[in-house]
Amino acid sequence: MPLRRRLALMSAAAVGLAILLAAIVCYWVVRGQLLGQVDSQLQEQAGLVNQLHCNNGGYLPTPPASAGGGAPIWQVAGSNGTIMCGSGLPSDSRVQSVAGGNGSAFFSDVAVGGTAFRELTVPVTVFDRFGGSEPAALQLARPLGPVNHVLAHLRLILLLLCLGGTALAAALGRLAARRVLSPLAEVAQTAEHISETEDLSSRIQVHADDEVGQLATRFNAMIERLQSSRSELDDSVRAQRQLIADASHELRTPITSLRTNIEVLMAGDRLSERDRRRLLEDVLEQSEELSALIGDLIELGRGDLPIESADDVRLDRIVADSVARASRDFPGVTFRASLEPVIVDGVPERLSRAANNLLDNAAHHSPPGETVEVAVDEDGLCVRDHGSGVDESDLPYVFDRFYRGANSRGRQGSGLGLAIVRQVAVQHGGSASAANAPDGGAVFRIRLRTEPAVAETEAPALS
To answer: Are 374 and 359 in contact (CB under 8 A)?
Structure first.
């Protein structure tokens, strides 16, 4: 059964039950009021009768017509069941008990000739013609026809009210359910549309800030995140495909050259010792170039993975180790470092690789005897060389994979070093930038979120 119909039936049942309970209460209240009026009239007449003479039918005092008049049927019954005065009412053991002085007054409903009456039985004293007296029971009865007629009309009205109220509640509940559930239907239609077309650009219009509106808002947020995740996944897949295509292209050249040199070496006796040695040196250089390229590719592939276990890392110490390594590898270049103690939340190996690549890049572009300036501060890492700088047309692309600028095409390298630098910076929530210094040379900076390191104190010597 559809949810809309279930809600309509539930609302109709709830309203119908409420109306039914209200009708029952109303019916019994009105019935009690009507019977109370009849009982009051009977009690008022019974209050006028304390002593009764049963001579020729006797005389029964009655209230005035404005108070309802006397009871149309009455009789006096003795303790042995004999009827002393009046007639037409049944006499049972309860009446005889009241007549004998062993019972109290009571009301009852009786039927006389197929007509319903309300009867009041009270004790009285009856005097005969000789002045004698004896206890008896006076029975006063008033017809319930008018009361039952009113109650019958009331029952019909209340029944129609219950049926009409339930039907109206069902109709209004269906309309309300349609209005309330229309956003849910829109959610279902949007989900079905996305399932059929895989179009994540569809959104649900939020009509109100209620539970259904909040559901629509959360659904839109979920679709937004799903679309963003899918876009990131598509970008990642495209980047991987581009990396594979670029790597295949870049690997083809050293592999072809290496294969050619090996084939020449296999020629055997036709090569002189000098040529053979030169070819072996070329093979060694090409294998080293190939190993460096494969290492860079592995680093790029590993860098696409999210950082799962980051630690508080002293960036100044990592850069100090990288400066020491670069000084050994490039003895003709002077490295001048200014390292402030700062902490970065990251992976030491990846940060070290990025620092090494920046220092190697600066050393390769520095003339012999020049200085490479290295600085670590609250903004991150900055490396400046005093070489020829970067061509202005190459600045937007220096961090792209396999890109080699005009000043780098004659040097050995894979074109992946700066791409690794940018990747590491982005993974750590930062950025990488390149610019030319006003007085010559290039400035490369990795901006990272840092915190000042707490000064370390030496442990006191033990006495």
So the answer is: yes
Residue 445 has which token pair? Answer: 């900076």
What is residue 113's DSSP assignment? T
> Distance (Å, rounded) from C-alpha 198 to C-alpha 208?
27
Residue type at 119?
E
- Is 41 in contact with 117 (CB distance < 8 Å)? no
Residue 79 buriedness (CB in 10 A; 0-12 / 13-18 / 19+): middle
Distance of CA 455 to the CA centre of its chain: 46
Q: What is the CA radius of gyration of the chain?
A: 54
The residue ranking higher by pLDDT, 24 or 200, is 24
In whole angstroms, give the CA distance from residue 165 to residue 160: 8
Q: φ and ψ at 342, to 5 degrees? A: -135, 155
How many CB atoms neighbour CB 72 within 10 A? 11
Token readout for 94 is: 């309860």
Q: Predicted confidence band at 301 (pLDDT cuts at 50, 70, 90)?
A: low
Task: Judge contact between 385 and 362, C-beta under 8 A.
Answer: yes
Q: Find out whether 67 and 40 touch, Cβ atoms under 8 Å.
A: no
Q: d(Cα 351, Cα 356) in Å, to the nearest integer? A: 9
Domains of the chain: 3-64+71-151 (3.30.450), 212-300 (1.10.287.130), 307-452 (3.30.565.10)
Question: Where does residue 149 rank: exposed (0-12), middle (13-18), buried (19+ CB within 10 A)?
Answer: exposed
Averaged over 135-143, what is the pLDDT? 88
Query: Can you tell me the distance from the alpha carbon of 340 to that of 444, in angstroms, rounded to the nearest whole number?
Result: 18
Structure tokens at 292: 């460096």
Question: Which of helix, strand or coil describes residue 336?
Answer: strand
pLDDT at residue 459 in the model: 40
The SS3 assignment for 51 reads strand
pLDDT at 79 over 80: yes
Give the up-direction half-sphere exposure of residue 350: CA atoms within 13 A in the CB hemisphere: 29
- Residue count of the chain, please give it: 463
114: left (phi over 0), alpha (psi -120 to 50) or beta: left
